[in-house]
Amino acid sequence: MGTQQSTTRHHPIFLGHWLFLSPPLSPKTRFIASLQNLKSKIDMTQLKTLPTYDPSLFEGAAEGYAQYRTKYPSVVFDKLAEIFNLNGQGRLLDLGTGPGLISIPLRTRFEEVVAIDPDPGMIAEAKRQAAAVGANNITWLEQGAELIDPSLGKFKLTTIGRAFHWMERELVLERLYELLTDDGGLALLQTGDNPWESNLPWKQAAVGVVKKWLGEERRTGQRGQGTRKPVDPPHEVVIANSAFARQENYEVLFEKSWTVDSYLGYLYTTAFSLKIFYGDNAPAFETDLREALLAVEPSGHFTEELKATILVAWKH
């Protein structure tokens, strides 16, 4: 009687990009492996769809943001109404809403507004601001713009004010496209008051004081340890490479007045000069800032001509 040889089959198992030959797996081992594989797929999905959000980006700034940040002039909202034929019907989606600087004043042009921000402090302040003016047609959602999905419904217009550069822009545009009505579009709003790009002597003096205390590089996030990266490519290029059909820029001129105190309040709401960045040095920073501003303008009152921009992208 011949000797019977046992044959062991080896099953191929893929791990990442590598192929291994392994002995047969027990049911328990196969179950654990399937769980690990599922977790890996979930992790990869999250990596592809979720940005890295820094919750300290505007830490402690919500109340001051509502008080001191440059408001969008009414002519900006009038221009949006003209461009999109707003008539009190339809729905508005406001991404990166902050304390509601767009969603609250623009609510009267729509039946319903959905306003989204990942910062719980901003959402809480927005609700307070809305209650103060009786704005009751706004739904506030604490989440990232990257997480929007069809469950939100359809929108005539989506606005993003001074926030698109913080987002995963390509992903937001991809998801947003499906949420817009056929005649809808996106409007990116800016108020043009960035002191780092200004040639006004008093603004340059203010930036000089910020640099004295925080260093030459423009700070961003991580409680003052992060540095600002250039917005590259520009928003226009990102939109041109998306599914949106066309885009156009509009400009609106307006005047803005400041005092020493209001400009200090403004600086404390910016991602590059939050009050927490200065710690115990905040009083000394404030003294330096006051001296620098008053050296340029002894009255302590400043006026500037600003150019608000509206970058509009249409779905079709």
Automatic annotation (TrEMBL):
This is SAM-dependent methyltransferase. The keyword Methyltransferase applies. Keywords: Methyltransferase, Transferase. Transmembrane segments: none annotated. It comes from the Bacteria. Residues 93-184 form the Methyltransferase domain. The keyword Iron-sulfur does not apply. GO terms for biological process: methylation. Pfam families: Methyltransf_25 (PF13649). GO terms for molecular function: methyltransferase activity. InterPro entries: Diverse_substrate_MTase, Methyltransf_25, SAM-dependent_MTases_sf.
